[in-house]
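[Protein data]
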Amino acid sequence: MEQTLRGTIISGDDFEPIDGILTMEDGIIKDIEEKKIAADTIIAPCFVNAHTHIGDSVIKDPPYLPLEELVQPPHGLKHRALAEATYNDLVISMRATVQDMIRTGTCAFADFREGGLAGARALRDALGPDNRVEAKIFGRPSDGDMGYLDSCDGTGLSSTNDLDIDTIKDIAKRTKEKGKKFAIHAGERDASDISPALELEPDLLIHLTNAGDGDIRSVSEANIPVVICLRSNFITGAGLPPIRKMLDEDVLVAAGTDNVMLNSVNMFSEMEFLSKTNIYNDRQVFMLCTLNGAKVLGIDTELGSIEKGKKARLMILTKKSNNMQGIKNTLSGLVRRARPDDVIKVI
C-alpha cells in the first residue's frame, strides 16, 4: 500500500533539509520528491540508540553513589537489583522502556544484557512481536555459561578490570568463533583498561571517557567504532569523552543513553546535551544519533537515514508547537530544541 508524507524532509546521509513529498510502499521508502510546498512538519529518520542497559529499568531512582558502587559487577547496586528482581518484573520493566523508546522516536538499539541466557530471553519477551524497534543484544556469561550466544548478536562485557584477563580472552575468543560481535567498556573510570581492551581486538568499544591522544590514535588505526554516553558519564562524574578528537582521528562515533537507572532512553535529551556541551555542529550531532549508530550495529543499509530503498522508520514533528514555532533552520531546531512532545507521529 502506497502512502505519502509532505513536509521538510531531513534527506539522505548528509541530512539536508528539503521541502517535498516522501512516498512509502509496504514500509519501504519509494521516492523523495523535492517540491516547493508549505511545510508545517519535519520528517526525520528515527534514532538509533547504540548503547543501553535496559535491564536497569527495575531501578530508576538510585541514590547518588560513586560509579563503582552503582555499576561495578558483581556487587554494584544495579547488579544487586537485577539479582533480586523476578523474571516477570524484569520483563515488564524492560517492556515499558522499549515502548518509551518507540514513543520517543527510536527504531533500533543495542543492549548490554546481563543475566546470561535468561537475561537475553527476558529482553526477547519484552520485545514480543512488536517490529517497530530492532534490538541488537550483547549478552554476557552467567556463572561461566556462554549459552546466551545462540540467542544474542554478541557479547558485551564491562571493564577488563572487572574480570580475570584470561577469562575475558576466552570469552572474546569463543564469541568470535561463533561469528558474533565482541564489545567491551573501556576508559570509563580511568585509562587503565583501554590498552588491555584494544589487545582483545573488539568490534566495538563503549565510553573512552578518559582516553588520551595516543589511545584515540590506536583506536583509529584499529578501525574500532566507539559509542559515547555523555549524559551518563556526566551524571557519574566520569567526565566528558574527547569526542572531537575522536572525530578528528576519523573514529566512527555513535551515541547511546546507557543505564536506564540513570537516564531515560530519550534520544532527544542525548542529542541536545551533545549539541550544547561538546559538538557544535548540528549535522554531525544528528549523525551520531542516527546513521552512525546504524553503522556501528551493521544496519545502515536499512536504517539511520532517509533514502530510497531503506525502511520507512520515521518521526514526524510539528513546526507549529510552542517550542518549535519560529525556527529558521530546520536541522538546528531539531537537534538543539525538539522534544518528544513535538512528535506527532512515529512510523
Notes: DSSP finds 13 helices and 15 strands in the chain. The mean pLDDT is 94. The domain at 2-46+304-346 is CATH 2.30.40.10 (Urease, subunit C; domain 1). The two ends are 14 Å apart (CA to CA).
